[in-house]
Amino acid sequence: MVKIEHVYWKDRIGGEIGKETVEAFSYGFTVGPHGEWEMVIAKEDKEVKKNDLVNIKIEEIEVPPRSIVLPCPLMRHACGIVASFATMGKPKKVEGARVLEEVLFHPIVDGMVQKGQLLGVANIFYAAIERRLARGAAERWLRERYRY
Description:
mainly beta; three-stranded antiparallel β-sheet; 10 strands
């Protein structure tokens, strides 16, 4: 286990920054054969400039517990691609449900994104989370349990 510091936007991109120190460890996961595609639809009009990443509000996408989300790499909007999904507030665990409300959009040309337009597709993959014990943790646990 290692101590890490989460740095996140509390309310909006470019707004107040929050920090939280937590203990964390690496996860392994297995992706199952079942997944979903969700349309990423603009919820606002936004002018975009070539190569200037911009955040765009989207229609809410509910992400089920124990799932991972990746933007589909195919370009779906003539002005650019969805580079990443953005969330505000404290980071949430993958074991819980989450809601996506915003994307980081990478424009390849100057133009206009309008409300209701398809920006991309979200690949939602269901995953089985496998917690790996930190090096030596299993041995320490066994020694504590089975002291004679």
